[in-house]
Amino acid sequence: MPQQPTGQRPTLEAVAARAGVSRATVSRVVNGGAGVRRPVVEKVREAVEELGYVPNPAARTLVTRRTGAVAVIIAEPEPRIFSDPFFSVQIRGISKELTANDTQLVLLLVEGPEDYDRIARYLAGGHVDGALAFSLHTDDPLPSIAGRIGLPTVYGGRPGWTPGPGGPGAVAYVDADNRGGAREAVRHLIGLGRRRIAHIAGPGDMTSATDRLDGYRDALVDTDPLMVADGDFTEEGGARAMAELLDRRPDLDAVFAASDLMAVGALRVLRERGRRVPEDVALVGFDDMRSVAESTDPPLTTVHQDIEGMGRLMARLLLRALDRDRAGAVTPSSLITPTRLVRRASA
Description:
Elements: H1 12-19, H2 23-30, H3 38-51, H4 57-64, E1 69-74, H5 78-83, H6 85-100, E2 104-109, H7 115-124, E3 130-134, H8 142-149, E4 153-156, E5 172-176, H9 178-191, E6 197-201, H10 207-219, E7 228-230, H11 235-248, E8 254-257, H12 260-272, E9 282-287, H13 290-293, E10 301-304, H14 307-324, E11 335-337, E12 340-342
Parallel strand pairs: 1-2, 1-3, 3-4, 4-5, 5-11, 6-7, 6-8, 8-9, 9-10
Antiparallel strand pairs: 10-12
Helix pairs in contact: 1-2, 1-3, 6-14, 7-8, 9-10, 11-12
């Protein structure tokens, strides 16, 4: 039986000789092709393992027309990404799904508008098979870039833009039931007997924030504009909004914050202003990031969304689209995941 010379990288020919099959058969097995009988597949795999054969990525790309890599694009600056656990949880979900499908994750960060040219060049260069993008704002150029290149893309969050003649329905996305979750949170506060319920909203150019604001309004017959203050999904943004609300309406008795981090900032300001939670002011967040919600004093009542699961679903939708049509765009397919209220001591 032929032996691979010491120090040389095993070749397809060596694997074929060891398995007693043709080079073409080995190529089909290694690259996931069909039409090879199971006993032959097993022989080839045994030969691959015995010789330590590793496919040549460039050659494999020529055969499969796939790079085996997916770009993950987060439209936020680096300090925000590494200070907000939401992003690490969603990336973890994406990474698990890609790893399970032997696909490499390539992380691309957007520090500012000037980065889009660099990202566009990279995506157009054929380095990845598709892209996953989240935390986009309504004026983000990324959907236009992906559409112009023809790159299969799945978005995290309901699109707030019109990418072309097909409108928002022409793109694939994964989102949570933001409106329904917010509505449930406010109804819970009403059920506790609270009547002056304020809302700390997220950025107005993000659909998750506007959907949660709509859910807040759904649950209240009359919404006082003075009871809504804008935040930015950060702890400091929540603190600023809480201070603004207390200055406007010191008699408020409940707050629904559109994110857990903003709720943390609100809790800090309430304590500084001498308000007890939940005795004086009941507080509810949104996300249910346990590392945040369970570490506050008191622990935070919040709306649960499956952040890691949504990351996995985004990757799964993209991989399925790539399998269906290796040369074309993503077949539109979108998912809305359920939310539920998790009751803790803050409300």
